[in-house]
TrEMBL record:
Span of domain Glucose-methanol-choline oxidoreductase N-terminal: 386-400
Record organism: Actinoplanes regularis
One MF annotation (Gene Ontology) recorded for this entry: long-chain-alcohol oxidase activity
Superkingdom of this protein's organism: Bacteria
Protein family per UniProt: Belongs to the GMC oxidoreductase family.
Gene3D superfamilies documented for this protein: FAD/NAD(P)-binding domain
Protein name in UniProt: Choline dehydrogenase
An annotated GO cellular component: membrane
Pfam families associated with the record: GMC_oxred_C (PF05199), GMC_oxred_N (PF00732)
Keyword Secreted appears in the UniProt entry: no
Keywords: FAD, Flavoprotein, Oxidoreductase
Length: 640
């Protein structure tokens, strides 16, 4: 980074979050710049750590800003220059906002949190902090023999590893992320992204259309998800049976798997307290005559703490969460001799005469200073690295057939904020304690759920589209009064996963299916009407170019304008926390990767054990469906 580029980048930070004279500034919020909380240093460090090609692209952008007089321009002119750069500047602006509002200082606080109404992470519960699993840490190249090797340890892989180990199989689990227990979780947002999320937190698809959130670590998404437990709907089960050959999924045998998982996870609705956003959702649903239900959650009631539950997406320090680590992997390791290697990226699956023979990969220490080759010889390989990474393993291995990486579903989510004129205390209580399924099958079996989201300061700020520094600060000044609703779309269309030049996975997703477009716009409209019926004084759709609605203005005109926002980069802000279908099961090898049992069409002994096996999008939070299918797959592995 040249001196000129550094100067431009630091000034860009203070342009996105500038110092503004304001009469109501007792806490210094309006006067505080990004650099006053060292966000500029964080941005510089992040850019310095980027791959060379990406870093040079940022440098070229900064050169372009400098050529337009950015360094000598006044604030208003700098904002115009940033606007003229278009979508190219959005990731940098988002990073500035993420750090300005999410990064704690040396004391564990952030001066902006006072205005946002956020008290900081909950105090650590007084519980015994244990680390029951001791992963293998190679001193040199590691070669292991096993009956089964499981790649990934999330909702699917963790369960399958536990089932196979309990049945007496010698199991090795290879996890690319790291092992964290309640002893490690502090519920700081940015720390959690770095430690427990794929690629360090929110990352866009290659086309910038959707921001992806996925777990990365022992236990995968079950360690950082919001514990929303929903059984697979009969509608989806029939579709999978009738159209994709999973005939048993529509019958009582799959009920058995669902019931078993439900029981093992201690699923309950007795720890789903409503925060004020949920109360608003309830009011609005009642006023509109819409369905409304309390969410069931995989949670230990004896350890429940509603304050700690508010930060579930950043790890659970109480030990109440019934993740795959707690329920399946700890017993597998401590009771049945399973071995775990964390920090191990699997390169490819080994075959012998067309059958599974094991895997090869590379282990890296957490500080990056040591590494070792890892080889596991096993006749059963369970691929459960998640729908964004499992296709990469198959593509690097040259197996799986033509459908590998295709049919990626994302459950795209729209977000709408309601300003209720009072502190919503969104940081308290389970992030998803209620839902509305009124529109789950609004057209041809497809539709959307309405849910709430976890309170975040960094991600929340970065998701709020930047127009000018003053406008964004105005929005953040009222952040404590916002309640958020999302529309979770069951997508019929799909994207794909490919490999880049370095052999890493790249996700692509363009929302173009006509049914999906209609349902996404229906979801935005429903969110607006729900906020209005609940008594919101203002409504803000997360999307570029749409000023918020204020009480007294024409609601129907606002809904019409919201319906014109492009559903792609530069338009609506879309998220995905559910990735599915990229190694899907089915009867046809031309359109599916695995057969209806979950075993690869072209490579016996390789089984798909995660959400990438879904024939279609589930239309619900997928954890229970993943685990029920994994329970089914584990039985298939054992019976052959």
């Amino acid at each position: 980074m040249t001196d000129l580029r550094t100067q431009v980048l630091r000034l860009l930070c203070d342009t996105v979050v500038p110092s503004i004279d304001h009469p109501d500034d007792a806490d210094g919020f309006w006067a505080r710049r990004a650099s006053d909380v060292a966000a500029d240093l964080g941005v510089l460090a992040t850019v310095a750590a980027m791959p060379a090609e990406q870093r040079e692209a940022v440098g070229a952008l900064l050169d372009g800003l400098a050529a337009q007089g950015f360094l000598t321009a006044a604030q208003a002119r700098r904002e115009q220059i940033l606007a003229s750069a278009g979508p190219a500047v959005a990731p940098l602006a988002g990073l500035v906002l993420l750090l300005t509002y999410g990064m704690p200082d040396a004391t564990g606080g952030n001066p902006n949190w006072t205005r946002l109404g956020y008290p900081g992470p909950a105090p650590r519960p007084a519980v015994a902090l244990q680390r029951p699993i001791t992963p293998l840490r190679p001193d040199g190249d590691l070669a292991l023999e096993a009956d089964a090797v499981v790649i990934g340890s999330g909702a699917g892989g963790g369960l399958i590893a536990g089932r196979l180990a309990a049945a007496g199989a010698r199991v090795v689990v290879l996890e690319a992320g790291r092992y964290r227990s309640e002893a490690d979780f502090r519920q700081f947002e940015l720390e959690a992204y770095q430690q427990s999320y794929r690629r360090g937190g929110p990352t866009p698809t290659a086309d910038q259309n959707i921001t992806l959130m996925a777990g990365a670590g022992l236990g995968g998404g079950t360690v950082i998800n919001w514990t929303n437990c929903i059984r697979t709907t009969d509608r989806v089960r029939r579709q999978w049976a009738d159209e994709h050959g999973l005939t048993d999924v529509a019958g009582p045998d799959f009920d058995r798997h669902l019931d078993t998982v439900w029981r093992e996870l201690s699923v309950t609705d007795r720890c789903s307290e409503f925060n004020r956003a949920h109360e608003a959702m309830h009011r609005g649903a009642e006023a509109l005559g819409w369905s409304f239900a309390t969410v069931h959650r995989n949670w230990d009631e004896k350890r429940h703490d509603a304050l700690v539950a508010g930060g579930l997406g950043f790890g659970d320090p109480s030990g109440a969460k019934r993740s795959t680590v707690k329920v399946y992997l700890e017993p597998a390791v401590t009771g049945h001799g399973a071995r775990v290697v964390d920090g191990c990226r699997v390169d490819r699956i080994l075959t012998d005469r067309g059958r599974a023979a094991g895997v090869t990969g590379r282990w890296t220490s957490e500080d990056g200073r040591r590494s070792a080759a890892v080889t596991v010889r096993a006749p059963i390989v369970v691929l459960a690295a998640g729908a964004l990474e499992s296709p990469g393993v198959l593509l690097r291995s040259g197996i799986g057939g033509p459908a590998v990486g295709e049919h990626l579903r994302l459950h795209p989510c729209t977000v709408t904020l309601g300003n209720y004129g009072t502190d919503m205390r969104g940081w308290w209580g389970p992030p998803q304690a209620a839902l509305i399924d009124e529109f789950a099958a609004v057209e041809d079996g497809y539709g959307f759920l309405m849910e709430s989201v976890q309170y975040t300061t960094g991600l929340g700020a970065s998701a709020m589209p930047f127009t000018t520094g003053a406008e964004h600060k105005e929005a953040m000044a009222g952040y404590r009064d916002f309640g958020s609703f999302i529309g979770l779309i069951r997508d019929r269309g799909h994207g794909r996963v490919t490999l880049d030049a370095g052999g890493e996975t790249t996700a692509w997703y363009d929302l173009t299916d006509e049914l999906d477009l209609r349902n996404t716009r229906r979801a935005v409209e429903a969110e607006i009407r729900l906020h209005h019926a609940a008594g919101a004084r203002g409504i803000r759709v997360l999307g570029h170019g749409l000023p918020p609605w204020q009480a007294g203005e024409d609601l129907e005109a606002f809904i019409a304008r919201a319906g014109e926002i492009p559903l792609r980069a530069g338009g609506a802000v879309l998220f995905s926390a559910h990735q599915m279908g990229s190694c899907r099961m089915g009867a046809d090898p031309a359109t599916s990767v695995a057969d209806p049992r979950g075993e690869l069409h072209d490579t016996p002994g390789v089984w798909i054990g995660d959400a990438s096996a879904f024939p279609t999008a589930s239309g619900t939070n997928p954890m229970i469906t993943i685990m029920a299918l994994a329970s089914r797959t584990a039985e298939m592995c054992l019976t052959g």
